[in-house]
Amino acid sequence: MSEAPFHVEPASQRRPRLGYLMAASAATLWAINGTVSKVILASGVSSLRLTEVRCAGAFVGLAVILAIRAPARLRVRARELPFLALFGIGGLAFVQWFYFLAIHRVPIGIALLVQYLAPLLVALWARFVFHEPVRRRIWLALALALGGLALIVDVGSGGAISGAGLAFALAAAATYMLYLLLAEHAVGDRGAVALLFFGFGFATLFFSLVAPWWSFPGRRVAADISLLGHLADRHLPVFVLMTWMICLGTIVPFFLLVSALRQLPATRVAIIAMLEPVVATIVAWAWLGESLRAPQLGGALIVLAAIVLAQTAR
Fold first, then answer.
1. Cα–Cα distance between 160 and 179 in angstroms, integer?
2. 158 — phi, psi (to 5°)?
3. Using 50, 70 and 90 to split pLDDT, how confident is the model at 7?
4. Which residues contact 31 (CB under 8 A, 6 or more apart)?
């Protein structure tokens, strides 16, 4: 193997402030991308097709980057293909698909908060499947998260939040858990960028079989659409929004997050990434006019606290 396109800096050479800035920027870009994606979905492009475009665009972009920076990383052994296929389809493809299905039905902030239950699911997997010791704070975090979710769903009023949307968000959390477990297993051998390249490649292949490109609704991509909400009087072509989603909503934040890992420990980077649901809620409020009632806002804050608590326990 050649040298990885990113390496871990020695502790004496790390620049924590730069790492915090990179991680926060990545979370912010992903948060904005949620609203951009919701506008695209409102144009009539299905969640399946939008996921297909995002995966294909990221695959092409990462291929160009690797070809320039680390071409040897484009090679793969035949025995690695089944694992990479599982990572790309079961992890990357499904987590994005379920997320888009969720945000089409529930506020973006709620969808992200539920998806970020994945670290708690990882802890449960570690305890009951791998039989590893799990800190008590994980169980406290799980209890807080379940209580927060009950407030978010607004059980007392019969469920103000779409049941289907919540189910898709929970499915996104489960597949995100799979993504984390598989990535943790393989990233040390192949490198994060190369792993994502092959993952997006298999995800693109999967969606190309499920929804062939020759039936892609090209007319909708070329159409001008309203930006909705407080920007309803402004219009942009769908392909411009898709380009933003691929470049600034996928490739750039992935690069920023990987680069942040050169300057900070993974646990700190993960905690900074918790900015995403918070910023996403603010962006959706400012752009789309999405809002949460007081009980649901309280539930969101409880879930966020649970996530941060879980992230502090290795």
1. 30
2. 90, 10
3. very low
4. 112, 275, 276, 277, 278, 279, 280, 282, 283
Which of 48-52, 65-69, 204-208, 235-239 has the least mean pLDDT? 65-69
The amino acid at residue 312 is: T
pTM: 0.81
Residues paired with residue 235 on neighbouring β-strands, in sequence order: 226
Exposure of 137 by Cβ count < 10 A (0-12 exposed, 13-18 middle, 19+ buried)? middle
Residue ranges of the alpha helices (H) in 158-293? 163-190, 192-210, 218-222, 238-246, 252-260, 266-273, 275-288
d(CA 187, CA 181): 10
pLDDT band at 185 (very low <50, low <70, confident <90, very high): confident
DSSP classification of residue 105: T
Instruction: Give me 184's structure tokens.
Output: 């943790």
CB-based burial label for 156 (10 Å; 0-12, 13-18, 19+): exposed
Torsion of CA 274, 276, 277, 280, to 10 degrees: 160
According to the per-residue pLDDT averaged within each range, which of 81-90, 131-140, 280-289 is highest?
Answer: 81-90
Helix/strand/coil percent split, the chain, to 5: 80, 0, 20
Q: At residue 245, does pLDDT exceed 70?
A: yes
CA distance linking residue 308 with residue 19, whole number of Å: 18
Distance (Å, whole) CA 132 – CA 153: 32
Residue 164 makes CB contacts below 8 A (sequence gap 6+) with: 105
